[in-house]
Design a protein that fits this description.
The protein is mainly alpha-helical. It has 10 helices and no strands. The termini are far apart.
Length: 247
C-alpha cells in the first residue's frame, strides 16, 4: 500500500515537471523575461511546486534547454520513417532553426551557465541525429558521401545568431537552402540513382532465381539419394533387368 502511494506521488511529480517544462518552453519563446510565477500559473501548479523542481531561473532555463535538444534529437528517426531521407533532413533542419529562434532570448543565461559538461551532454544527441540523417541521405543517393556531421553542426550554429523578428524565418530558410545545396553538390544524378536501383533490382531478381534453381536442384538430388527412390527387391528375387545369380 505504501509502495503504491509512493509510486503515485512519484508519477504526479513527473507530470508536474513535464507541465512546467512545456509551459516554460511556450512562455520563454514569447519572452525571455517571463517570470517564474507566470510560468507556474500557466503550468497549473503553485509557485512552491515549481521551486521544488527548479530552485532558480537558471535551473529552469537549463532544464528547458536539455529537454528541447533531446526532443529535437528524438525526432530524427521519426522523420526518416515518415519521409524520404532528404526531405526528413530538411524538416529536421527547419525544426532546429525554429528551436534556435526560441532559444535566442535565453542566450545570456545559457552563455553564463553553459559548462563543458553541459556542452558535451547536449552535443551527443544532436551529433547522433545528424549522423543518422546524413547516412540515410547518402545511402539514398540524395547527398554526396563523406560529409562530416561536426561540420554540419558547426554551420547550423549560424541559425542561432539570427535575431528573432520579422524576416527571421525567411533568412533561416535561405541559409538552409544554401546548406542543402552544398550537401547535394556531387551527389549521384537522379537518372544514375534510378539506373543503380534498376541494377540492384535485377541483381535481387537474379539471386532469387538462382536460389530457387539451387533449391530445386538440391530437392532433386535429395530425392535421387533417398532410399525410397532406389529400386527395391524381395530377398532372393532379382530386380527387373538384373541377371539371375541362381545356380
Amino acid at each position: 500500500m505504501a509502495g503504491q502511494q509512493h509510486d503515485t506521488l512519484r508519477a504526479d511529480a513527473q507530470q508536474n515537471r513535464h507541465r512546467i517544462l512545456e509551459a516554460a518552453r511556450g512562455a520563454l519563446a514569447s519572452s525571455g523575461d517571463a517570470s517564474l510565477n507566470s510560468i507556474a500559473k500557466k503550468a497549473g501548479v503553485g509557485p512552491g511546486t515549481l521551486y521544488r523542481h527548479f530552485p532558480n531561473r537558471e535551473a529552469l532555463v537549463l532544464a528547458v534547454y536539455r529537454y528541447d535538444l533531446q526532443q529535437l534529437a528524438d525526432t530524427a528517426p521519426k522523420l526518416l520513417a515518415d519521409h524520404p531521407p532528404t526531405e526528413a533532413l530538411r524538416l529536421w533542419f527547419d525544426q532546429l532553426a525554429h528551436y534556435g529562434m526560441i532559444e535566442h532570448g535565453l542566450a545570456g543565461v545559457l552563455n553564463a551557465a553553459t559548462s563543458d559538461d553541459l556542452a558535451s551532454e547536449t552535443y551527443e544527441p544532436l551529433i547522433g541525429a545528424i549522423t543518422q540523417l546524413l547516412q540515410a541521405c547518402t545511402e539514398d543517393g540524395g547527398i554526396r558521401a563523406g560529409h562530416n556531421p561536426d561540420d554540419v553542426l558547426l554551420i547550423l550554429g549560424s541559425l542561432w545568431r539570427i535575431d528573432p523578428g520579422p524576416g527571421a524565418e525567411a533568412k533561416a530558410g535561405r541559409l538552409l537552402d544554401l546548406l542543402m545545396a552544398g550537401l547535394r553538390a556531387g551527389a549521384p544524378k537522379p537518372e544514375l540513382r534510378a539506373t543503380a536501383g534498376a541494377r540492384s533490382g535485377r541483381r535481387q531478381r537474379t539471386r532469387r532465381r538462382t536460389v530457387r534453381g539451387l533449391s530445386g536442384w538440391l530437392s532433386a538430388l535429395s530425392l535421387f539419394r533417398s532410399p525410397a527412390a532406389l529400386p527395391t527387391r524381395a530377398p532372393g528375387r532379382p530386380v527387373s533387368g538384373e541377371p539371375s545369380r541362381s545356380g
